[in-house]
Amino acid sequence: SRETFLLLNNVLLVVATALVLIGTLAPLVIEMATGGKISIGPPWFNVAFLVPTVPLVILLGMGMTAAWRTQATAPWLRTLRLPAIIALLFGVLIPLLVYGRISIMLVVGCAAAAWIVVVSLIPIVRSLRREKGAAGITRSALGMSVAHFGVGLFVIGVTIVSAFGVESDRALSPGETIDVAGYEFEMIELRNVQGPNFSAIEAEIEIRRDGNFVATVRPQKRQYLVQKSWMTEAGIRAGLDKDLFVALGDQLGNGGWSVRVQYKPLIRLIWLGCLIMALGGLIALSDRRYRVNVRKAEKAAEKAVEATA
């Protein structure tokens, strides 16, 4: 039943939260108890969060198509057969054809994302296929489908960024070029600029791919007049398929600067997925069945009081 999957998903969410909490607090507890210091970094959080999340995502798609209270197994499995096949094909072919690389975790992540996206469309497709005059999809069901569609986009964004994102720290001077993730970053010049409440050193960096101009970004190293502290303002070339980040680090002397370049494919799907999840929640909340007619409730209360009196 759907209640079973809701319960299992809640258990897995609690497990994921507990693992993250342990990784966050363990260094502090050990330092207080023994005086020693340990460091728990990204490897722990990546593995600890991934272990309960993968089955959670699979159960999420299964629970969406299950009925309340009880579900007959045979028709339910027939409903899930096609989404499962599409998800597996997507998990294998998309990373291989688009990015030219494949791995077990990459297949699992892409297949899980496709699984949620396809399953989230089932209630909408069923509603469109109903005969004219039949009851359509409720707002709560539509909100559920939209929210889970956003979850699928979020998962594919996280998977692709984790697998194909590139981060590189290089030394760069005006007139020099560095190559990162197939893109050429050339520092054209450095100049001093004055803002409303800060002064900054600004670099003009041109980005090219295969000799073709892509964009110009202008990362800054700012010093605010009040705080007298240096802050980094990254230059970002944003796009739906990828983001390119360039940030100035420390001055190295002889006109050189340390520069951090980041290539983040499909990172926008993470934020887009979260926005769609929120939209799905708002659509579900607008369902009339969740509204309370205050006047009717007051009349019912008055009648109950009179009957009691």
Helical/strand content category: alpha+beta
- E-strand count: 10
For the largest beta-sheet, the strand count, sense and barrel status come to: 6 strands, antiparallel
N- and C-termini, Cα separation: 44 Å
H-E order: HHHHHEEEEEEEEEEHH
Strand content: 15-25%
Q: What is the 3D shape? A: extended
> Low-confidence parts lasting 5 or more residues at pLDDT below 50?
none
Q: Please, what is the average pLDDT?
A: 86
- Output the number of helix runs: 7
**Radius of gyration from CA coordinates:** 26 Å
Helix content: 40-55%
Question: Briefly, what is this?
Answer:
This protein has 309 residues and is an alpha+beta fold.
Structural features:
309 residues; alpha+beta; 6-stranded antiparallel beta sheet; 4-stranded antiparallel beta sheet; 7 helices; 55% helix; 24% strand
Topology:
Blueprint: H1 2-34, H2 42-65, H3 73-99, H4 104-129, H5 139-164, E1 166-172, E2 177-180, E3 183-194, E4 198-209, E5 212-217, E6 220-224, E7 230-233, E8 235-237, E9 242-253, E10 256-265, H6 268-285, H7 294-308
Antiparallel strand pairs: 1-10, 2-3, 3-4, 4-5, 4-6, 6-7, 8-9, 9-10
Helix pairs in contact: 1-2, 2-4, 3-4, 4-5, 5-6
